[in-house]
Automatic annotation (TrEMBL):
It comes from the Bacteria. PANTHER family: MUREIN HYDROLASE ACTIVATOR ENVC (PTHR21666:SF270), PEPTIDASE-RELATED (PTHR21666). This is Peptidase M23B. One of its GO terms (molecular function) is metalloendopeptidase activity. Residues 25-120 form the M23ase beta-sheet core domain. It holds the Pfam family Peptidase_M23.
Length: 201
């Protein structure tokens, strides 16, 4: 599954010959060009906006132009760089697929594109590291992230509410061991569907 459907991948993650300097350099993210005529950029994963403006030199995002940076629920930072406009505010909680800005060519960029980078940390300096240690390969990260999301068919809180409100009283009122065992099994079905571990083996 390609997490970047709707985009052309113009420069992959990893070591490459830099288009300007003609020397081998590490590319910390992927370069994408959207096929959408409105050039709208959407969040690849949900999270909290921690940066949404022109980046400052020395901040850890210098040269990235106008950047939206979003911290996901694992603490990883998703940087959307070289934007032409920002549509979100710091502190805002975004859902996956929500609009965040417009593709552009701000900062150190030769042509309009989205530089998308995933950092392992969001602080200090927005998780910037000189070496490749601080970033992950975005395609693999997103594929793994989506796979785990799809495994959870329901919210953990919803599953636990059903267990507490209905299954536990039913278990207490059950007259036979077979009934109790069946109720325990159903509770585990709910736990697994919401990404939790079984409690009755
Ligand atoms: Zn790039």
């Amino acid at each position: 599954m390609n997490p970047f459907a709707g985009y052309a991948l113009t420069s992959p993650f990893g070591y490459r010959i830099h288009p300007v300097d003609q020397v081998k350099k590490f590319h910390r993210g992927v370069d994408l060009v959207t096929s959408a005529p409105d050039r709208m950029i959407y969040a690849f994963v949900a999270g909290e906006v921690v940066h949404a403006k022109e980046s400052i030199r020395g901040s850890g995002l210098g040269g990235y132009g106008i950047v939206v940076a979003i911290k996901d629920d694992r603490g990883y930072l998703h940087c959307y760089a070289h934007l032409s406009a920002v549509l979100v505010k710091v502190g805002e909680k975004l859902k996956r697929g929500q609009k965040l800005g417009l593709q552009g060519s701000s900062g150190l960029s030769t042509a309009e594109h989205l530089h998308y980078e995933i950092r392992k940390w969001y602080t200090p300096s927005f998780g910037y590291t000189e070496s490749e240690n601080g970033v992950v390969e975005p395609t693999k990260y997103l594929q793994d992230y989506y796979a785990k999301e799809e495994l959870s068919l329901m919210e953990k809180a919803d599953a636990n509410t059903i267990i507490e409100l209905y299954l536990k009283p039913a278990w207490g009122a059950a007259k036979t061991a077979i009934e109790k065992k069946e109720i325990g099994r159903l509770a585990d079905v709910l736990r697994v569907a919401s990404g939790q571990s079984k409690q009755n083996v």
